[in-house]
Amino acid sequence: MGSRRAILRSTVAILLGSVALSACDGSSDPKPVVKSYLNALASGDGTTACKLLDPKAINKLLGSAPHGQSCSTLLSQVNKLLPASEKQALQSAQVTGSSTSGNTAKVTVSISGKTRTVNLIQSAGNWVITSGAAA
Q: Would the pTM count as exceeding 0.85?
């Protein structure tokens, strides 16, 4: 069990620490991107979460997973390993601010009282997270 917990913690850190994701609506506001990803992760919707991920982020994420595992399977498994309190923390995360400069943005999010800055870029008209929040 300790080994599974270590893998879980490592995977969550990778997912939330340096994951890229995109908004589906081409919005000029990057804040919903961060909230949408956290909600998808918290609800165990690996398919939706992976649709939001940049290919480089998926490759990085899968680099820590067992060989041959898909992104959606991995994210769904991570959700199953998260305690209810961590799922609730992700769903309750508060976006507290943002700033944009050209095609880059920084979004501030608070998860369980810890503030993180999520860095984003615009790709094909959609925001993608390049690095960010950790629970």
A: no
